[in-house]
Amino acid sequence: MAPSAPTHRTRSESYVTALHDATASYTTRLTHGQRDFKGSRARLGRALVGRDRGYTIHAFMDPLYKKAIAQGVAGMAVFVAFIFLPAGTWHYWQGWLFIAVFSVSTIGFTVYLALYDRPLLERRMNAGPQHEKEWTQKIIVSLIILTFFIFIILPPLDYRVGLSPVPAYLSLVGDIVIVLSFLFIFWVLKVNSFAAANISVADDQKVIDAGPYAYVRHPMYAGALWLFIGMPLALGSWLTICLVPLILPVLFWRLLDEERILRRDLPGYNEYASRVRHRLIPYIW
What we know:
By secondary structure, the chain is an all-alpha fold.
């Protein structure tokens, strides 16, 4: 009989084998008796944490995933503090529902990118003025972050004093608008793997003209604009909705400055801009 060919397993394959063997042993002991039950349970536990054969699960050691989890936990804590402290009560169902909708949407994004587009996840994690190269963008991003937190803090204050309450059904409509805006942004990210959180041009970047980019040159900002409309509705404040026009100059500044950089640094963008003439809203601007 010919000798069997040597097998070469990757770390992931070895982990799956260890987990399968330990699970099978654990299940057999449950089915046929309790003898050596503790030993089987211990082997399953070691497999689950990746210790059974001297390695660890790579996903939990990956610095990018650790960063994503840390940012998610910190963001949740900030949301809870910035919503319920101004509201002065935990009995604010609009706040809880908003956090749930926003968290599920962002977690869904993160999990999808972690599984299918790690480079884009890394680009999206590098957000904030410190990651911008142009001084104009550092200013713009700082203003956008400030505006975002104003849109988070002001509605709970409005709720606390009862200045301009929104009907409950419109708060639900606001949450639906938030979900739809996230789905639209997801479409943008699925089409454009170069959609970084900061304005930069990668060495291998190419012009994207498919999907929403066939209609407007900056669909990401169109989705973000609807997000700013949905947030005050979801949190129950007419007053904050009235502030939406005030964010438009900052949004337009960001968009136009980004175009300046793309025209300068991205080959083919000028030709694309001549074909797709509208920036944000089809047939309008």
